[in-house]
Amino acid sequence: MSFTSHRGQFPHSRPRRLRASEFSRRLVRENRLSSDDLILPLFVIEGRDETQQVASMPGVERLSVDLLTAKAKQLVQLGIPAVALFPVVDPSAKSDDARAAYDKDGLAQRAVRALKDAAPELGVITDVALDPFTSHGQDGLMNDAGYIVNDDTVEVLVQQALSHAEAGADVVAPSDMMDGRIGAVRAALERDGHANTQIMSYAAKYASSYYGPFRDAVGSAGNLKGANKFSYQMDPANGDEALHECALDLAEGADMIMVKPGMPYLDVVRRVKDELKVPTFAYQVSGEYAMHCAAFENGWLNRDAVILESLLAFKRAGADGVLTYFAEEAAQLLQAQ
Ligand code: PBG
After folding, report:
1. Is the pLDDT confidence value at 298 over 60?
2. What domain range is 48 assigned to?
3. SS3 152
4. Atom of ligand 1 minimally distant from the CA of 212
5. How close is the Cα of 214 to the center of ligand 1, in Å?
6. Measured in angstroms, how far is the CA atom of residue 27 from the centroid of ligand 1?
7. Is residue 238 part of a domain?
8. What was the pLDDT predicted at 283?
9. Which residues take part in binding Mg(2+) (predicted)?
10. For residue 5, what pLDDT band results from cuts at 50, 70 and 90?
11. Are the C-beta atoms of residues 102 and 132 closer than 8 Å to each other?
């Protein structure tokens, strides 16, 4: 068919018409990214005035508690509603029973107190999982056969979540994928006077290779015994199972659910949001961050534009918010717009 055969006819519809002017592009825009959608993950270390670069995550620094509180105040100025806290403890604090996880004066607990003191309006989300504290780097307790045992792990997770709530955490976020932990944590929070402590469940968390740089960041990569987390994190091949996991966690008392990783799993975000219609978050994980940075550093992608486009895609997929290492930068970009 030649182009000339169309001459004299008009297309029934010209979708380009609304794209021709900025005013109408703005009017018909379906989704918007704002700083309200962003949660910044932060890595905290011991010491004073101490920063450490994370080699596989250019631009991401681990911060001592005093620097963390300074950062928190800047994040409030940028309109970021919450941070997700990840402690990086010394190898000497790691053990087979992960007892440092629920130490009232542990690094995470001290960081929570300092953050709530310095910037009370900033929501503090804590990670409930044992991997920073186990000598083998797995998220739970390991038996002699190398299997991560479920119910004994849940008991430790409950202690950990309670210690976070007592320190003042607004939200506890179990990222361990043990069965039944949301119900157990919810019951313990209710019982101990923390009825308003929220639970953001990493409900659909996949056994992903995109977490590599994070394991460097928290220092659990080198010592990860068993090499993978296939016996508790979800198989990347599965979609229906994510709905099942999310429904269970909601029934057990989760207030918000999360899908993780993010960009390769936006189909899961959409399905979860459509089916369950609850506050749904997604995590643009360390590997996604590292991949983007590699392309930016090589001049292969436009940094500012791609950061904002990647985050807007989460909104279009139905996410209510995104945990992203780009949160601070994205909020700065949005503020400058
Ligand atoms: C572990 C945990 C992981 C992440 C958050 N919490 C890694 C893992 O499951 O091995 C990954 C975050 C990221 O890659 O950015 N409880």
Report:
1. yes
2. 33-336
3. helix
4. 14
5. 6
6. 39
7. yes
8. 98
9. 245
10. low
11. no
Q: Ligand 1 pocket, 286 CB below 6 A?
A: yes
Statement: residue 104 has pLDDT above 60: yes
Please indicate if the annotation marks 245 as binding a ligand. Answer: yes
Q: Return the C-alpha torsion angle 175, 181, 185, 188, nearest 10.
A: -160
What rounded mean pLDDT belongs to the chain? Answer: 95
**Residue 131 in contact with ligand 1 by CB distance below 6 A:** yes
CATH of the domain at 261: 3.20.20.70
- Rounded to an integer, the average pLDDT of 151-159 is 98
pLDDT (tens digit per residue) in 75-101: 999 999 999 999 999 999 999 999 999
Question: What pTM was estimated for this model as a whole?
Answer: 0.95
* 126: its two tokens: 């804590």
User: Whose Cα sits closest to atom 9 in ligand 1?
Assistant: 211
Domain count, the chain: 1
Taking the CB of residue 159, how many other CB atoms lie within 10 A of it?
17
Cα(130)–Cα(207) distance, integer angstroms: 16
Q: Is 79 within the bounds of a domain?
A: yes
Judged against a pLDDT cut of 70, whether residue 129 lies above it is answered with yes
Catalytic residues: 205, 260
Helices 327-336 and 303-316: angle between axes, nearest 10 degrees: 100
In this structure, the residue with its CA closest to atom 2 of ligand 1 is 175
Rounded CA separation 144/128 (Å): 24
